[in-house]
Amino acid sequence: MTQTITVIRGDGIGPEIMDATLHVLDSMNLGLQYEFADAGLVALEKQGELLPAATMDSIRKNRIALKSPLTTPVGEGFSSINVELRKRFDLYANVRPAKSFPNTKSRFPSGVDLITVRENTEGAYIGEGQTLSADGEVATLTQKITRRGSERIVRYAFELARRTGRKKVTIVHKANILKSTSGLFLKTARAVATEYPDIECNEMIVDNTCMQLVMRPEQFDIIVTTNLFGDIISDLCAGLVGGLGLAPGANIGTDAAIFEAVHGTAPDIAGQGKANPCALLLAAAQMLDHLAMPEKATRLREAIIATLEAKDSLTPDLGGSGNTMSFAKAIATRI
Ligand code: NAI
């Protein structure tokens, strides 16, 4: 059966890592067809808008997108198209695995295997109600957390634990200080946890979580948390396993799912063939799991691990002298 997916090549290193990823996927005879669509700066230049209707239609129709990173200007300019996509398709679960791989610059070469499940549609991160006073002295932001939003993300985390045989869910919050917002998240999470007596559950305040992750990451299995905390924690976790080049993420909703790398457009290395394609490839493996092709997903992950083990054509971030496409070709050969 043929499955059509929407492919967004993105900005910065996006086109390079996407070409490399599609090269590997093409070598796997998956029956995938690609529908290319633009978003972000490229779309603005070509079509005059950041998120063209044709791109929205393509994702709505195919329900699956593989997406490279998109630029968001810092401190000014347009709002994030990533946040907009997550909002418009109600992609409420952001699932970010962090796993130790061989021959990476990790301080924990074999000890990390955890998943951050981040609420993706509410909280401070979405930037609702941002204002800056006329004199530039006072800025505000609305932080809205809902019972519904909290309940469905925590349920997602526990269901993921059951489905994947994971044993423990850690609820990460700041309810000691943010008593209303983080408090509602924590209260709701505790109630959901009672429905899963087979899964161990504990709670941790977010600042302590950061320290614990650095000191003893092996104590974590699945972390579930709100949007902004999840954003920061998942990059920390990427650092534990050797950097952003190895960190994938899935944005899952009821009607659509978008798979992407955790990292951004890496303007400092764009166009130089230095970008590590593994994060997007690992996101593609998450996509294959989602498309009910778990054996193919495993084959892809195993080929990535074998290539890392052989130190074959690795990109500079992993200490190699290969480039984005030579690394991808080495992986495709192992498949
Ligand atoms: P970044 O993730 O693009 O880069 C941070 C550092 O990691 C840089 O030194 C970069 O060279 C390195 N890096 C990132 N990906 C790599 C890869 N695949 N291989 C090797 N090295 C890699 O973060 P930064 O600089 O904060 O953001 C740049 C732009 O990306 C901003 O406009 C930001 O808004 C956007 N961004 C987009 C995301 C998305 O589309 N999902 C996610 C994060 C940032």
UniProtKB/TrEMBL annotation:
GO MF annotations, alphabetized: isocitrate dehydrogenase (NAD+) activity
Checking Gene3D superfamilies in the record gives: Isopropylmalate Dehydrogenase
Q: What Pfam families does its record include?
A: Iso_dh (PF00180)
Does the keyword Oxidoreductase feature in the UniProt annotation? yes
Q: Which keywords belong to this entry?
A: Oxidoreductase
Give yes or no: UniProt keyword NAD: no
EC number(s) stated in the UniProt entry for this protein: 1.1.1.41
Q: Where in the numbering of this chain does the Isopropylmalate dehydrogenase-like domain appear? A: 4-331
Could you say which protein family the record assigns here?
Belongs to the isocitrate and isopropylmalate dehydrogenases family.
Task: Please name the PANTHER family in this protein's record.
Answer: DECARBOXYLATING DEHYDROGENASES-ISOCITRATE, ISOPROPYLMALATE, TARTRATE (PTHR11835), ISOCITRATE DEHYDROGENASE [NAD] SUBUNIT ALPHA, MITOCHONDRIAL (PTHR11835:SF34)
Protein name from the UniProt record: Isocitrate dehydrogenase
* Native species: Lysobacter niastensis
